[in-house]
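Hi everyone, sorry if this is the wrong subforum. Our group has a chain we'd like a structural model of before ordering constructs, and none of us has done structure prediction before. Sequence below.
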Amino acid sequence: MVIDNKGYKTMTIPWEQKVGRETEKVVIEFCGINTNESEHNKKLYLLDFGCGSGRYLEIFAKYLDKEKLWGVEIAKEKVIEVKK
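Answer:
Right subforum, don't worry. Here is the predicted structure as tokens:
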């Protein structure tokens, strides 16, 4: 995780590779999600811009209510991949 010159948290992840346990831990921490069921998580909504095939949304669904997860993707090939 890196703080950019405007003070925002950013990170670089190998998006096209399989999501390993370490990457999952980093993403969950980055998003401020508690890995134990908590009242905190019940308050969270998550919007994943550029969600690709939704594999990170699957990770978030382990910890958050699925009704509060949203994904947006504009790359035609990714949308077609999800529809298959």
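For your construct planning: The mean pLDDT is 82. The chain has one domain: 2-83.
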